[in-house]
Amino acid sequence: STAGFLREYVTQRGLRHPAIPRVFDLGFAYHARGEVPYFSLQYCPGVPLVVAIRRLQTLDTAWPWMVQLLRALDYLHRSGWLHRDLKPGNVLVELDGGPDGATNLIDFGVVSAIGAPPEAVFIGTPEYCAPELLAGEPYDARSDLYAFGLILYEVIARRRPWPGSDEHELLQQRLSGVLPPLSHPDC
Fold it and tell me: Is 37 exposed, middle or buried (0-12, 13-18, 19+ CB in 10 A)?
């Protein structure tokens, strides 16, 4: 896990985008179980999107967040990386940031280079993964965009399209199930 943590640091250190927090110093601290790595990260005000969704008064508040998130993903993909764990808990937003409320994409712990082969074991959050990630098949930038679509659905409907967290059940629902229609009056 130390190698993965260091990969996260090195990857994020090379990224420069307003919606991706910068990382600074890397170090090791003593812990009762041994040495543990840490890095300092740019302070990002706001709350996780998973919390903001529950507090939304109107969908108009969320559109700038979604646009900024898409811009961060576009930059990440053009830089040759896939986030692979896009979910509302990995997006920080400012609730009172005005019409252009700040958005920050965080947690690059399972980032991978575009074109990297899939792992033998699933890594990520099943609730927001594309079917190819759940099935252990090759993936690309469309997998992150699929996760974005699930987030957008949740922002609008205030719930995920498919409940549960079992990988196999979610895979079957996504491959053979029908996406529950959105019924929000603003859509």
Answer: middle
Taking phi first (over 0 means left), then psi (-120 to 50 degrees means alpha), and beta for anything else, what does residue 28 get? Answer: beta
- The tens digit of pLDDT for each residue in 96-113 reads 766 566 999 999 999 999
Which is catalytic among the residues 85, 100, 144, 166?
Answer: 85
Please provide the distance, in angstroms rounded to a whole number, between the alpha carbons at the two ends of the chain: 43
Active-site residue, 85 included: yes
Contact criterion met (CB below 8 Å) for 158 and 54? yes
Contact 91, 69 (CB under 8 A): yes
pLDDT at position 38 is 92
Give pTM, 2 decimals.
Answer: 0.90
Crossing angle for the helix pair 63-78 and 141-157, nearest 10 degrees?
A: 170
Give the model confidence (pLDDT) of 114-125 as tens digits.
Answer: 999 888 777 878
* 159 CB-near residues (< 8 Å, 6+ apart): none
Q: Per-residue pLDDT for 160 more than 90?
A: no
